[in-house]
Amino acid sequence: MNPNFLDFEQPIAELEAKIEELRHASSGQAFNIDEEVGRLREKLKVKTAEIFRNLTPWQVSQVSRHPARPYTLDYIQAMCEEFHELKGDRMFADDQAIVGGLARINGRSIMIVGHQKGRDTKSKVKRNFGMPRPEGYRKALRLFKLAERFHIPVFTFIDTAGAWPGINAEERGQSEAIARNLLEMADLRVPVICTVTGEGGSGGALAIGVGDRTLMLQYSTYSVITPEGCASILWKSADKAKDAAEVMGLTAPRLLENGLIDKIVREPLGGAHRNPQSMAIRLKAVLLNELDALETLSTDELLERRYKRLRAYGAFSEG
Amino acid sequence: MNWLQKIMTPKTRAPSAAGGKGKVPEGVWEKCAGCGTVLYKPELEKSLMVCPKCGHHHAISARARLAAFFDEGSTTELWPKMEAVDALKFKDQKKYKDRVAAAQKNTGEKDALIAMSGRLLERPLVAVAFEFSFMGGSMGSVVGEKFARAAEKALAEKSGLVCFSATGGARMQEGLFSLMQMAKTSAALARMRDAGVPYISVLTHPTTGGVSASLGMLGDLNVAEPKALIGFAGPRVIEQTVRETLPEGFQRSEFLVDHGAVDVIVDRREMRDKLGSILGILQKAPRAAA
């Protein structure tokens, strides 16, 4: 079992290993294996498509937090001609579970803010597993307000299991930090486009997720609580996460159907982690396209539309 | 026992176990959860469920709270027919539909937020209160919509909004609809802020999760009742995450005042006069007669 592949991705891992082996064995040899490699590549493509066509919501949850999934800084690197990271909340600390800064994309000035997870143990700890503390949200807010002052649109990238549930976070006002961002983002006088790139976990995700458009990558998830959290409360067992994921309606197609998000950005065959570069290029094109549409609106129109959109979320009856 | 009952204190659990509103077979005496004194129930109700001996604040229903808060006979209930819709066809060990029906039967309420307009010290005001015994006061689409409408009404009338929260947070059974109520209610509050219409958030026991992290902490004033549990994550989740014992008094009202998250702690019996006076100053109205 290859640890860099999820259990249902193992057939992909095996085919890839076979191709690699063949290529390795043939180097320096006279006989031609191109045909065989070509055949295996085709098989790999078909198999990958087959696996990803039928993912269950629980499998999608796993892809959304795949260890190889691209994170905010990967997208920034692939999308921007320039990026200047800006740190700190000016009050307490710099929370590395959220990164942000001034960027230039196709020549345009953009403020980017996103959750950031780590890859290896050391960087995972440094990034607190992508779970921000209040200072992270306050840094984000500082950057949003900076963008507003200079009339620069905002892109946010959402990828967190949730806000950090720790003693220090509570002491410094985790609730207030999240709440403040919701209010201020509703009112921010520049276009804001939010993209769920991985896990959209609850209030910790929404705290950088209020804006004019909400996009989701095809295999990302967005939910009120993690499947494990939901399972441990409603089923009294985190092992029922699979069942919880089924009923929570957390996949992009379900959320689009319910009018809770605006657009799904298709992922490369086998998921964003199979081809981060092509994912980033596609996302960049969609983001700039969405931004063009928003920039035709006056600020008042933009805010009015944003309010109507936020106000419309909900399903209820009046007897 | 379902998860809601589990997070309730034995005290708050008692009424629904007894069959809820209207049916009170347990008699007229109640033991104070704070000091253990046996109290005559009508007396306890008269002091708004606050123990006359030790000041312990017991749970109070949303309706009783609002009735006691507004000027007598001045209230009109707003949007009383609004009900939840099971948009996700959600089912865990029980169907969401059945949970709602059971909660409606036990509490006599349609959902977890009651909204009213009326007068406070003779000035018009909109107020909302969470009913904790309705699915843990959880916020789904109905709660979010009523709150947003209440804010819009206060804004249109330029009166003011007071919210009494008592909730475990967002309602899981409505999935992302619930999460989006945080954005919706906060957006409505942003409009009130921009227009200078006051909003006072009163945090009562308990206020956690998605409500605390949206409308709960966004008051022009954040007020708390004594010793209320207030926080983002629940104590058990934190304990499991950090694997430490939580400090004494952690996430209680007094802790929040010490850490700068709450303006002031107000005894329920003084809430009406205190908030009425503060609103009078904010709105530059003449001082109300005592």
TrEMBL record, chain A:
Name of the top EC class for this enzyme: transferase
Catalytic activity: N(6)-carboxybiotinyl-L-lysyl-[protein] + acetyl-CoA = N(6)-biotinyl-L-lysyl-[protein] + malonyl-CoA
Pfam family, one: ACCA
UniProt xrefs under InterPro entries: Acetyl_CoA_COase_a_su, ClpP/crotonase-like_dom_sf, COA_CT_C
PROSITE patterns: COA_CT_CTER
Subcellular location: Cytoplasm
Entry protein name: Acetyl-coenzyme A carboxylase carboxyl transferase subunit alpha
Lineage: Bacteria, Pseudomonadati, Pseudomonadota, Gammaproteobacteria, Lysobacterales
From TrEMBL, chain B:
Database matches in Gene3D superfamilies: 2-enoyl-CoA Hydratase, Chain A, domain 1
PROSITE patterns in alphabetical order: COA_CT_NTER (PS50980)
Catalysed reactions, semicolon-separated: N(6)-carboxybiotinyl-L-lysyl-[protein] + acetyl-CoA = N(6)-biotinyl-L-lysyl-[protein] + malonyl-CoA
Compartment(s) where it occurs, according to its Swiss-Prot or TrEMBL record: Cytoplasm
Residues in C4-type zinc fingers: 32-54
Cofactor note as given: Binds 1 zinc ion per subunit.
Region: Disordered, residue numbers: 1-20
Domain CoA carboxyltransferase N-terminal per the UniProt entry, residue ranges: 28-290
Pathway given in the UniProt record: Lipid metabolism; malonyl-CoA biosynthesis; malonyl-CoA from acetyl-CoA: step 1/1
Entry cofactors: Zn(2+)
Keywords: ATP-binding, Cytoplasm, Fatty acid biosynthesis, Fatty acid metabolism, Ligase, Lipid biosynthesis, Lipid metabolism, Metal-binding, Nucleotide-binding, Transferase, Zinc, Zinc-finger
EC numbers, comma separated: 2.1.3.15
Entry's Gene Ontology molecular function annotations: acetyl-CoA carboxylase activity; transferase activity
Pfam families cross-referenced by the UniProt entry: Carboxyl_trans, Zn_ribbon_ACC
UniProt binding sites for Zn(2+): C32, C35, C51, C54
Subunit structure: Acetyl-CoA carboxylase is a heterohexamer composed of biotin carboxyl carrier protein (AccB), biotin carboxylase (AccC) and two subunits each of ACCase subunit alpha (AccA) and ACCase subunit beta (AccD).
Stated role: Component of the acetyl coenzyme A carboxylase (ACC) complex. Biotin carboxylase (BC) catalyzes the carboxylation of biotin on its carrier protein (BCCP) and then the CO(2) group is transferred by the transcarboxylase to acetyl-CoA to form malonyl-CoA.
Family: Belongs to the AccD/PCCB family.
The protein's name: Acetyl-coenzyme A carboxylase carboxyl transferase subunit beta
